[in-house]
Amino acid sequence: MVLKSFTSPEWRLDKPIHTERSVKVICIGAGASGLQLAYKLQKHISGFSLTVYEKNPEVSGTWYENRYPGCACDVASHNYTWSFEPKTDWSGLYGTSQEIYTYFNDFADKYALRQYIKTQHQVVGAKWTGSGWNVSVKDLVTDQTLNDTCDILVNAGGILNNWKWPDIPGLDKYKGTLLHTARWDESVDLKGKTVGLIGNGSSGIQLLPAIQPLAEKITVFMCGPAWVSPWPGLEGRPYTDEEKRRFAEEPGHLLAYRRSVERGNNSILPVFFKGTDANNKARDVMLKMMKEKLAGHKELEEGLIPTTFALGCRRFTPGTGYLEALVQPNVQVVFSGVTELTEQGCKCENGSEHPVPDVLICATGFDASYRPRFPIVAGTKNLQDVWAAQDPESYLGLAAADFPNYLTILGPNSPIGTGPLLIGVEAQADYIVKMIDHWQTHNIRSFAPDAAAVRDFVAYKDQFMGKTVWADPCRSWYKSGSSRDKITALWPGSTLHYLEAIRQVRFEDWKFEYEGGGNRFTYLGNGQSQTETNPDADLAYYVREEDDDLPLARNKMTRIINKTGTVVVAEGTGEGRFFSGL
């Protein structure tokens, strides 16, 4: 056996074990995910440099961009927060986009996160050099392109932020005002106007009740059915002053309320399995509520209520007031896709033509393909091309094979539809912090998920999805890959399942390359421990009168979590920092 050279300065033989290297991180996007990453790095990592590039003039991502009337979150407001950062003064059960924007904006201010953020800077390219990333960034104010470098690149650009016009001929012919829900023009007055609304996804469902009382006439174009109705007890409503007072003033009241709602959010997975009692019962409840709200309008029932796919195949939304708006006399519903725009309106697949001379609103969503909007190049591969030629394939929603030191938040198959979303973002940020810590303390040059591990995960995911309602034949952005029949957006399990899956890093799934001639043990340093270099440390810390009960085995830890609801993590002196709070 030939030993690798000890001559490289990267061996760091003059330093104790796990000595931290400085690390430079670039994060793409200052929405919720980017802000959470900045918070976690600031809290847990030392010796780091972070730049967060954000294309918008402000932080908060989609909640800055989406300002259409009625825009809100379809998750209960008190649970659309970070797990550790409650907000006491939500106006109602579902927070408005402005309130959510304010929440994340205030979070950035409270924890001084703006020091890391450059707004109106859009990443337009990234190239792996062999030991780091060269990143091209366009300054949207000066229109100049600058170059930056980093050791680790994190894409926190989000899922629903790349809005798009519908692929309909004649967009340039239309003579009225053309709007998109993700680029709303607040100067447009809809009072007394004849309006067209294309789309019955989440945006269209929220928008219609807000504009129906204003417009003289609204023609709604639907190309498919959708399950629309709140769960019993979750009708959107404002909080009373007394409720707000109790949230703000009574110790423990808000925490108990948040946990009660979260338990419900974490119990929905059985609904998404085909043919189960849970799905059938939920369907019966939803069907009954939809028919009640459609008030006997048989044509609406036949066109809107799905018959060819199960409840949950498409993301369903509370839709407060939507069904009631559809039956109003100034609303016409056209169950046919728009095939062409004219100067004055829309032509449809069924041959009908409908005048909407004043305003046409496209609630047609986003490019949810996961294909990056700019080149991300490593070696001969561009992730744009890789994910265009095949279904997007990630490692646990966190990374892509063959793209070193590149991590993602809410990448393909993340936990976005089977329970709470933001705790999944927190867990992914925690995981990224652990990977960065490992890079700092183990003299690593590069890391990337093993391609075989990605293939195995995707195979498991595809097999799991076959048992679920998501595999039914519905049009859904959950199926955003090239095949259009694979589920690329959702995690194969519950959110709680995901938290357990990524709580510990499976280093066996990763490929590492090392500095210092490639020897993986250079981190051992000069033979001294971190404990010996700390003048305040107890050099006999492990001597005790009896053994403790902190679990070492993963399965025992899981049982303790399930029994008490508390995450128990053993602290020690093994490697680097210890994230007892993660």
TrEMBL record:
InterPro entries: FAD-bind_Monooxygenase_sf, FAD/NAD-bd_sf. One of its GO terms (molecular function) is monooxygenase activity. Keywords: Monooxygenase, Oxidoreductase. Signal peptide: none annotated. The keyword Oxidoreductase applies. Belongs to the FAD-binding monooxygenase family. This is Monooxygenase. It comes from Neurospora crassa (strain ATCC 24698 / 74-OR23-1A / CBS 708.71 / DSM 1257 / FGSC 987).
